[in-house]
Amino acid sequence: MSDTGARPSSVADAVPVTDRFRAMQLVRAAGIGLVLLSAAATPDLLVPGRRQAVTATLLYAVAVALAAVLARVIPGSVRPVFGGLLILDGIWLVWAGYLTGGLDSPLHYLILLHLGAVALIASYRSGLKIALWDSLLLYAVFSGTQSGALPGTDVERGFSLEGQRLIVFVAVLWLVAVSTSALSSVNERELRRRRIDLEALTTLAEQLEGASGSADVARTLLHASIQHFSFERGVVLGGRDGRLDVLASQGAVEACVLSTGHGRSELVTRAHRDRQTLLVRALDAPSDPWLSRLLPAARDLVVVPLSAEGRLIGALVLVQASSRSGRGSAVSGRLPRRVVFGLERSASYAALALRNAWLLEQVQQLAATDGLTQIANRRTFEASLEQEVARSLRSGEQLSLVMLDIDHFKRLNDERGHQAGDEVLRDVAAALSRACRDVDTAARYGGEEFAVVLPGCDAGTAAVIAERLRQAVNSISVGVQVTASAGVASFPRHADGADALVRAADEALYASKRNGRDRTTVSQGGTPDVDAEALVHRAVLQREQRVVDGTARVITLTD
After folding, report:
1. How much is the pLDDT for 263?
2. Which backbone phi and psi does 449 adopt, to 5 degrees?
3. Among 448, 467, 507, 544, the one annotated catalytic
4. Could you report the per-residue pLDDT of 15-57, keeping only the tens digit for each?
């Protein structure tokens, strides 16, 4: 009769069956103690069968004790023992009541107490099943007394006063069963919701811990919020220094996300000012145009501020699922408190993870960039060059390197001061960054010397790009004419490795210096140990062999 089976939606998943078994054992001990105490203190209360009722109670107590030992000794036996004891409970209560006066016995009140305990401790389904079991037992005893199979005070055949009293008691029994089961059902549902929310929050925390950056943190928060709480769309806004950038979006206007950059939202400002979650019926386009463009025609919005270490860093903006479709949902209209609480807890976890990701990205950026010019430093340049050489070997494509040096930089420092020299270095770095392609890496190599890695470029193309870079430097306006000399070398045409490529480009640079500066020179050297064409041919053959091996492996697996 117990509802202790594996049911995903039951309270059994949230409260261990051993704890519920232990609680019911306390209820049984209290019932046994009450019967024995009543028999000893008020003998006239349990007549006419007081002695038989005490004997039945003692036998029941022994059975309960043996069941507790069995559940402890045999692994996995708690559930069947729990169910068996619930059946035995009903038999003992009905039989003890019959022995001590039938429906006149005060022990019948224990049936009602036991029923309420089962509904609240086990589950509401168990309470309803026990109510049915007790009703059948009471009817069986009544039928036995009416038929003469059991001795009773009323021997009249058919429907009698005793039958009417039985109907009233059973009605009360079911009233207690339904009311306590309804309360138990509400408790189970709330407990189940809290368990699901806690599991979702735990999963989110684990995902945030494994996020690889601020963008990944924002996407994780947005996806988890929309999926778990059944929202339709939303955005995560945030940024350093009080800016609002679109860190993640789902269902927003992508063109607007890409074109608007950072902006300002009146709703987010109000949420930050009040430091609380806002529930908004609809967006007001005139007062909040930026957010209205991101989430057009949005209704029933939730704005959750993101705060880390007491500092407001952004907001989670969600649109409820009924805003477009018109269909009702679990979160349409006014949000339940548990949803708001869950969103706030999720936002607090994500805000801290976002703050940490930003700090880590800032440290990584500081380690990878030159402090003065804010472009790649020498360490980053060397790592990028090694990576591009390895990629060139795999793909068979050529790779070029441009080394640039500012002409007469020492004289500029002596005449105008080091601050002016630093300003020139910053302007040169900015000019190189603007003139480079997206795949190129511009870096400060040291002093007034810069390097630009050009993937996929042969020597001729690199010479053209180097001239463009030099012209960008020459166009700098700092009150004095700034020129630069450049040297170009290609892999594997002029070198067989990263270090050799740097030496070849550096030698070409100094050739430009010797020949009058303000010019570009392409390296005239060659690979000392291996022919360039053979190196490229070998790379192509290696790539083709990898393709053949992969195809053969697929065919083998298919066969």
Report:
1. 74
2. -105, 135
3. 448
4. 688 888 999 999 999 999 999 998 888 878 777 888 899 999 9
